[in-house]
Write a structure and sequence with these properties.
Chain lengths: 264, 264, 264
């Protein structure tokens, strides 16, 4: 391999002085690491990435200092991803290629952000959230834990564009928003809810509800949905899906019982 | 900082001979500036940008010469933006990361083009237009001044894809098109009009109209819309929004009176 | 020109040892070519491209070897495109800027994939397919020959996100899917069919049908569509469009007769 030699920092990478790089970190060719970036042990930063991209004030204010960018252990960033200064990412953070994440956001552990996602900043994201390709997360959005968002979904934030004031959407634990849907400003999608593809979500979605359409209307609950092959329930998805989840290999129920007992 | 030292041209940048670089221009690392590019004074070109990207003829015709790319003063291009040969941008032009703008387009002053926008070429854009992230502007589109277009909007141009003939959409001064809407070929969105999120606009939109839905239907005028908090009008937005506008600090009315009097 | 000197391999490009580069290939600056990539004669790889991007196993398995990436003759890849290891592309393959194509896919000859397209892998694509900008092709999608897909279309694959099992969409020869449409998992779009803009396609589309809406409903056949200017039929498009097609200059009918006679 070349351009990305595991465990090494490519000589073509530009690394600022005030950077804290953990043990066994890989940094690929042509990366830029600006001031005040911390990279956790075992992380792999693919080629052409930019870490600590300065915010607008950099260009205007001679006293500008980059806010810290903190990346946890064992991150894996695909080529060309750009993380702005002033955000924070838990352990096991993964991105696809050419992701952009702006300033002021906080991500929990084990989040995966797909190719070309665009997180606009000042967002709050829990643990084990999965954004598929090309998701647009407006400023001030809030995601719980184990949230799934599929390609080309937009979480908006301006009720009267461009006037504001901005108010983010909120997506609760275990909810899933299917492809090409828009969640309007301030809308709250409840725990375990499912938003169907190509929907426009104007009103709050109750927990476990299934909504579809433009504008979206509730058509039932997640318990009404059966698998095509066997006619068995497929939701809540956490009882039927394990890959990459902390309950992989033992199932959600067992994991959750252990967790409640303080064992996981 | 590194990879982007204000006021300097990074030694890793590839600069052609026939390039005209104004005073106090910054060019970041790994940029490519092809033939016949002019960059106005005070501009900042972020890392990994490509200016004057050759058009298809370059690969086929040995006598090819790059058409001029003209960038006004005080531009700010975020990392990885690609501007093709043969377009023209007024002063104060800004892009987010990884914008693509193809040949044959003309942008006025103080336009801002968000992350991942894709302008297909042969477009005519006025002054102070704002394209948020990931807007797709089809060939031959025409935008007035002070137009706002929000994420994932597509301005189309082919009434019978892929047969053509192409006919661009036209968006008039002060109009706003909300996220995930499609404007069909040749459609004319009137001055001050508002297109709601997730709409399919098949017919012309009158000035000051509000349209929503798929297909879009008029539900009122912008004067019917009241702010959530105070119940007061929020449109026309120019009377309620100032950031980045030429009337910042004095308000639209005062600015407009001064402008009419030849003072602004 | 600079950064992309036709017929040369830029010295800044990182080329692995086990790479097979045909005659008269161009590789632009800052490209990375990983192990086991084959590039056909006459191909042009623009700056900042990555060929043979390793799959996830690379980061986990010390015995990992890159699966072969095979690119046919006369390819033209625009700047910043990323092709993963383990896919195969016929002759005359073209991409716009910053395309991503993942592992396990097979493309026929003369396909053109627009700016920012995201092909998720394990897809089967025929000859002369055209994906316009920013198309998202889910894993396990299948496209025939001469298929057109327009900006921001999503071909999905998970009937019960994120549970699966995945089942791709299938688009037959000569079909066209207009902008911002979603094709649901396992849906089959028939030969010569047309999906209108901003549609949600939940059911199979018969050959030659025209469907529109969310959810999409059939409104007629392609023979009902007349050109705006002359009132003449415009579909099937292959009888009215030639640019870049193998029948350019002679028309579809003549080409097809020759083809049937074994002459084309």
């Amino acid at each position: 391999m070349n351009g990305l030699e595991l465990g090494t920092i490519d000589p073509s990478a530009r690394i600022s002085r005030n950077v804290d790089i953990g043990q066994n970190v890989t940094i690929g060719c042509n990366c830029i690491v600006y001031d005040n970036v911390r990279i956790g042990a075992g992380s792999v930063i693919g080629p052409h990435c930019i870490l600590g991209e300065p915010t607008m004030a950099f260009y205007r204010d001679r006293t500008y200092e980059n806010a810290p960018l903190v990346i946890g252990a064992d991150a894996l960033l695909r080529a060309g991803s750009v993380l702005y200064a002033g955000s924070e990412f838990g352990d096991g953070f993964q991105t696809g290629g050419r992701v952009s994440i702006r300033e002021g956001s906080k991500f929990g552990h084990h989040c995966r952000i797909g190719t070309l996602c665009d997180v606009q900043g000042f967002c709050d994201v829990g643990d084990y959230c999965n954004l598929h390709s090309n998701v647009h997360v407006g400023q001030m959005s809030s995601l719980g834990n184990f949230v799934w968002i599929f390609p080309y979904v937009v979480l908006t934030n301006d009720p009267n564009p461009p006037v504001g004031p901005l108010v983010g959407a909120r997506i609760d634990d275990f909810a899933a928003v299917a492809t090409m849907s828009v969640v309007l400003p301030g809308v709250h999608v409840g725990r375990d809810a499912l938003v169907g593809a190509h929907s426009l979500v104007r009103k709050d979605v109750p927990p476990e509800a299934v909504v579809v359409g433009s504008p979206a209307r509730q058509i039932g609950t997640i318990h009404d949905i059966k698998g095509r092959s066997d006619g068995q329930p497929v939701y809540p998805w956490r009882e039927h899906f394990e890959r990459g989840m902390p309950w992989e290999g033992i199932g959600y129920q067992t994991w959750n019982e252990r967790r409640k007992a303080g064992l996981a």
